[in-house]
Amino acid sequence: MGKKEKGRIQSIRGTRDILPPESDRWLWLEERCRCVLGRFGYSEIRGPLFEHTELFQKGTGEGTDIVLKQMYTFQDRAGRSLTLRPEGTPSVARAVIERGLLKRAKVLKLYYIGPMFRYDRPQAGRYRQFDQLGAELVGVPGVEGDAESVHLHVMLLRELGLSQFTVKVNSVGCSKCRPTYSRLMRERLSDELENLCEDCRERFERNPLRVLDCKVKGCKEVAQGVPPILESLCDECRSQFEEFKARLGLIGLSFQEDPGLVRGLDYYTKAAFEIHHDLLGAQSALGGGGRYDGLIELYGGPPTPAVGFAAGLDRILLSVEKEEVAVPPALPVEVYVASVSQAGREKCFVLASSLREKFRVEVDLLGRSLQAQMKAANSVATRFSVIIGEEELSSGIYTVRDMESGEQEKVPEQDLREYLRRRLGL
Ligand SMILES: [Zn+2]
Ligand SMILES: [Zn+2]
What we know:
- By secondary structure, the chain is an alpha+beta fold.
- The protein has 2 domains: 4-177 and 233-322, 2-Layer Sandwich (BirA Bifunctional Protein, domain 2); 335-423, Rossmann fold.
- Helix content is 38%, strand content 22%.
- It has 16 helices and 18 strands.
- The protein has an 8-stranded mixed sheet. A 5-stranded mixed sheet has the order 15-14-16-17-18, sandwiched between helices.
- Strand 5 (72-75) and strand 6 (81-84) form a beta hairpin.
- The longest helix is centred in the N-terminal third of the chain and has 18 residues, at 22-39.
- The structure holds zinc ion (ZN) (2 copies).
- Residues 173-174, 176-177, 233-234, 236-237 line the site of one zinc ion.
């Protein structure tokens, strides 16, 4: 049921149509990303866009903003509660268990690209259906996995020509040491409750760490008075964090430590990271992730170490604009087949159809004049036009016009493919 205005059905608030030529930029972005993911040995997993609501309640976390306020949850016709996926990691974890993927391989490298859905306040560059790329490395307990995950994210950005971004890292502790820190935070915050925003007063109960990444000014001030989590880490988490940073150094990745980086989701443990663009202002996070060793077990699978990240493709494209990266244009039309008169139209149609086995070809479908066809050929920036008039029809020798130089040559039909191949440098 669409909202009707004067009988016209409009798109849902927070959604958009990605139109050409913008869609060419998306294609470029996705192709570059898939190429890098391939170099790191990742394969794509294509899961459903909706899942049982419970999957996100349990994994993403009951107390998170996503589950509390942002999910598109509905009952289907059988009365089941379903949710459009607000993030990708829970579905991947579910699939790992349900499809027995760990029985086939000790290490899984899976990525996804596609839409996520969150009922968030739409604003510039933020949509309720938005696109994310995620990469999950499952089965690797050590810090090499953490460092490789960060490196992959960085390489994705570099592949797109981006350079003005900052990697931030932190540790969010484990099931042994995080409760200690949560207790300490509750103690510190209990005297300051009136200075916290409404959301943070809720977080105080459920997950006080989240107060650390609240953007509200009063909360930020309170958060500054709290000792960083690094001081509460257990020995294992502390030494892993040091090793993680050392591995990043080994592969020449510079980073900043950010004690306020806690990630918005409940399942993160130990290494956490985010990448921020330096020119994007307040909403600068391009992506982030970290280790989530408990998630697969939480869903009933075996204890399984895992690390991964999700990147927001809208913001990444915004950064591509900000850094004025030259995105290569979409592939242009190579050949426009034009007819001088109505008599040649049939031949044009047949020739265009057969040339399309090799070349990108346009032909007029509207019965337009030669002048209009040439205008159309110019507007699609074609490299060559093949022009068919009376003479060409009877001789089978066509006029090929180089649309850049304006030069024309006569080419017999049997030589046409070879001629175009040579001139196009194919
Ligand atoms: Zn720990
Ligand atoms: Zn707050």
